[in-house]
Amino acid sequence: MILYNSETKQKEEFKPNNGNEVKMYTCGPTVYNYAHIGNLRTYIFEDILEKALNYLGYNVQRAMNITDVGHLSDDSDYGDDKMVKMAEKEHKSVLDIAAFYTKAFKNDFERLNLKWPETVLPATSCIDTYIEIIKNLIDKGFAYTSNGNVYFDTSKLEKYYRLTNQAQDEMLVAARDEVEQDEAKRNVQDFALWFTKSKFENQALKWDSPWGVGYPGWHIECSGISYKTLGEYLDIHCGGVDNKFPHHTNEIAQSESFLGHHWCNYWFHVEHLNVKDGKMSKSANNFTTVQSLIDNGYDPLVYKFFCLQSHYRKILIFSYEGLDSAQNAYNKLINKISTLNKNDGEVDFEKIKEFEDKFENGLSNDLNTATCITVLFDVLKSDINDVSKLYLIEKFDTVLGLSLTTPKKSVKNEIDEDLKAYILNKIEERKNAKHNKDFATADTIRNELLEKGIELIDTKDGTEFKIK
Ligand code: AMP
Ligand code: ZN
To answer: Looking at the predicted structure, is the pLDDT value of residue 158 above 70?
Structure first.
């Protein structure tokens, strides 16, 4: 298999350390809100990668974290903890918020036919491992305590920037530094491994450590979970392109300094899903969720099909017009497949070889899913018998996961029960607040829902809601 490696910045033949056994790590979500379809573009391609590797004969051992502590509103050490902020806003505990959005994330995986990785660990379940790594880094001189926190000393590395262009990053760090300078750091690009005495007094989850009661930084979580679940050597590490810096750069710094050797051979990064004015993101409030697609009458698999039509390393611009053409093509495919005759003789293994080869070449050529989709249409247009067509389509669908021969029941207007209960509860809270003339609280509830893409509509018969 040929894959583009973001570390060497070239396409390379993929060779795992140990024969056909692949150790794959994928950065998981920070569970403070729903995943948007941009986040899910990354998870869709990670899933395709895993299934493509299986298709090509590899055994994949895959692990993923669920970040429930330590991810600040800036990807670096600035801002508030995203989980704490949402818990305060929703008057819930951090763990309740994490449980709620983890379940929603899992639900999105199911709706998109994505396989849940065999190992998924919440960051809060591996504190001992982070402490073991941090102790080791301090002993070896790669980390230091300052003002109560523990930082990684990036000046101890010969090459800190491994995935990005150094000059550009230094400019970014400098720009950020003008906003808020952490005096405790020896070098501006140093990053926190463990927070104790810090500005985040309201941090709900804290653990004892050799450096005082505190909590881990975001980056150490992935190094720790990867080490704990997959061991000292990784074959491939995945994430969205925005994770290259600082997150993955810092993971490499920590893991290699701790392990004392090269850690991961291939870095797989998925480009962003944009909307017409830039990257789809929670902070820009320009995002769409799987639920909102469903509410607008789209099967989530149409979105998946839309993603698979273009290459994972190209920016993809989301629009409903684009989704409509994907819907047309997907419907054509499904309709055509549904007319195939299951009892039309035997599979012609000689004739199907040509299509199997083309499909395999598409996957092996840096995961060219657009080619794989074209092969599907070619199969349907060809003169091989229906049973052979069905055989191929079912085989290809083990990678594509588009429910091609078993279309899911229509999901139009199907709202997740938990989400519905949550919204109805909020509507009731808002009604009570209005009844008590507490209009500020009523407005806050409305705005909080709006931030999640849920619009309240007051009618003479009560309040209704619409998912945007
Ligand atoms: P987060 O929950 O913010 O940590 O993001 C989860 C994953 O989604 C990470 O791998 C990000 O790199 C990725 N991601 C975030 N925004 C986008 C986007 N607009 N398009 C594609 N991937 C994204
Ligand atoms: Zn990560």
So the answer is: yes
